[in-house]
Model the fold of this input.
Amino acid sequence: MSITVSVDSRAKRVAQNETLFREVNERVEEVASGFADRDEEDRTIGFVCECGRRDCTDSIEITRARYESVRSNPLRFLVLPGHEDKSVERVVERTERFLVVVKLGEGARVAAEQDPRS
Done:
């Protein structure tokens, strides 16, 4: 007997994983801001890859300002190249070190509902 997982339930699961990593990054930023000097605005911080892979523990070094620009949209997530999932998200920005993806469909709904800044 085979079990079929619907696209919507898979998208929801991936979005829930990603929002968990986003919550971790919110705490990372909160702690880092407590130690930051105004002169250190360009200093990088190690944020957790916000991909939907359960086993991913990789980090992405970016500035707080860059992280804030990604977080300005609750549907956007920061992931490493190769960690994007084209079935549930679309890449909206590519750099050598990271990608910015936007959630689609059911995943977008979950991401918006679970946004810690909303």
Summary: The helical segments are 7-35, 64-71, 105-113. The mean pLDDT is 82.
